[in-house]
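Quick one, tokens below:
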């Protein structure tokens, strides 16, 4: 505004407001321009950094490409060096490696075949075991008929299972009683006598377990322990042994003279020394059979000749027509079990006996006591000692 002029206050106020708005607009424009400039300068500043980053990435890709090229060149050089002089290529080497891997893969097939062989053995044993058990079933059915006959007639049967250790006595007993009426039979296996029993008659503790009418009692080792095991192992005196051998037949005659009601069958199970040793070794190594080993078993092989001598004296002094001994050759357990069943079935005439079954005894398995005694005498004359 010019100096020396007078203006109305309203006009002055108008001009002052206008000037302030103009100045404010100028400042806004200047701020906007500055912001645009700053943004332009910022973008300009970022451009070189972006270009630098692109350069780094390009250099990395170039570096990796060159590294791959160097790696491939080195691998090619190695293959060229590894090629054999006779002209085989690396491809042949690769094939040989494949063959080696195939050979390695064939190893499990070999193990599979061995496993298959083991499985075949197990299957064959199972089939053979099943066949043997099926062969015994008809005779086991006949034993049930025999048991029923004894029950109906009121007769009693006593079966003695004596003989060498590990000769198959227990297994034969289990096959005989397998399908029988449990109320009509008992298996008696007495242990060591008590102090009180030692003062009593030796046979008394066995008589206490004798059968009632219509009952069968099977003794797994009988009173004949006094004639076999006890004198050899020193469990009785010589005087006790001699007294028993003199009196035992009279004892048996007393309870056999029961109006024909009592039937006595005496069985001696015989096994060869080699087979006995094999069975002992099996018992030692098999945890399911180790409980069968006893003090007597551990010394049976060493005292073989002493047991043979007692067997000879047993047959010589206690084999009679009324109560004969039957020797069972038990190297083959199955045949021994089958022939023992036949022998028991042939001892009694009973109703319903099968006409299809073969009840004839195998003379190589079942031998009468007097025949065995003759054979042992021949052995002593030939070899100067008893063998079996």
């Amino acid at each position: 505004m010019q100096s020396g002029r007078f203006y109305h206050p309203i006009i002055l106020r108008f001009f002052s407001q206008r000037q302030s708005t103009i100045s404010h607009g100028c400042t806004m424009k200047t701020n906007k321009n500055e912001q645009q400039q700053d943004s332009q300068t910022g973008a300009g500043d970022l451009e070189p950094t972006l270009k630098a980053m692109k350069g780094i990435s390009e250099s990395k890709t170039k570096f990796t490409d060159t590294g791959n090229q160097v790696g491939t060149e080195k691998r090619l050089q190695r293959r060229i060096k590894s090629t054999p002089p006779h002209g085989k290529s690396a491809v042949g080497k690769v094939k040989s490696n494949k063959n080696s891997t195939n050979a390695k893969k064939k190893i499990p097939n070999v193990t599979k075949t061995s496993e298959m062989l083991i499985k075949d053995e197990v299957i064959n044993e199972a089939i053979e075991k099943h066949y043997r058990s099926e062969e015994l079933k008809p005779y086991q059915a006949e034993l049930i008929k025999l048991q029923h006959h004894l029950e109906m007639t009121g007769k009693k049967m006593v079966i003695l299972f004596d003989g060498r250790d590990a000769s198959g006595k227990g297994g034969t007993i289990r096959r005989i009683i397998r399908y029988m009426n449990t109320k009509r039979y008992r298996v008696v296996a007495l242990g060591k006598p008590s102090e009180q029993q030692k003062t009593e008659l030796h046979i008394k503790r066995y008589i206490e377990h004798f059968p009632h009418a219509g009952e069968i009692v099977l003794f797994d080792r009988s009173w004949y322990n006094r004639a076999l095991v006890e004198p050899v192992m020193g469990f009785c005196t010589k005087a006790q042994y001699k007294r028993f051998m003199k009196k035992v037949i009279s004892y048996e005659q007393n309870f056999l003279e029961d109006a024909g009601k009592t039937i006595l069958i005496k069985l001696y199970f015989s096994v060869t020394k080699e087979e006995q040793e094999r069975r002992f070794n099996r018992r030692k190594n098999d945890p399911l059979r180790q409980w069968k080993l006893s003090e007597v078993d551990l010394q049976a092989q060493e005292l073989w000749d002493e047991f043979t001598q007692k067997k000879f004296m047993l047959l010589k002094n206690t084999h009679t027509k009324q109560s004969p001994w039957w020797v069972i050759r038990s190297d083959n357990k199955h045949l021994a079990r089958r022939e023992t069943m036949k022998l028991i079935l042939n001892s009694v005439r009973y109703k319903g006996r099968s006409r299809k079954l073969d009840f004839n005894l195998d003379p190589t398995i079942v031998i009468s006591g007097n025949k065995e005694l003759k054979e042992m005498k021949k052995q002593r004359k030939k070899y100067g000692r008893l063998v079996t």
